[in-house]
Design goal:
With 78 residues, the protein is an all-alpha fold. It has a domain at 50-78. Helices cover 81% and strands 0% of the residues. It is elongated, with a radius of gyration of 23 Å. Keywords: Membrane, Transmembrane, Transmembrane helix. The chain crosses the membrane at residues 29-46, 53-74. This is DUF340 domain-containing protein.
């Protein structure tokens, strides 16, 4: 689905409402939409199959190498 169409329609509607002097309260619909998006992102993320132990190992190695590289550069520069 093209996301630009709803975006442009929303911009036009907001501009027209501003010109008409009406300011609708969008706090509740925005909060509901945001929570729904976060919920569905979590559902989609939960469907992904991941080898957790391998990912943990790679992440730990990456963290250690990042720290070691930062310390090495700090020694060379400082």
């Amino acid at each position: 689905m093209n996301v630009f169409i709803p975006l442009i329609l929303g911009l036009l509607l907001g501009y027209l409402l501003k010109r008409a002097g009406k300011r609708p309260n969008l706090e509740t619909p925005t909060s509901i939409a945001l929570l729904a998006m976060i919920f569905f992102l979590g559902v989609k993320t939960g469907e992904v199959q991941v080898n957790g132990l391998w990912l943990l190992g790679v992440s730990a190695i990456f963290a250690v190498l990042t720290i070691a590289g930062s310390l090495l550069i700090a020694e060379v520069v400082g």
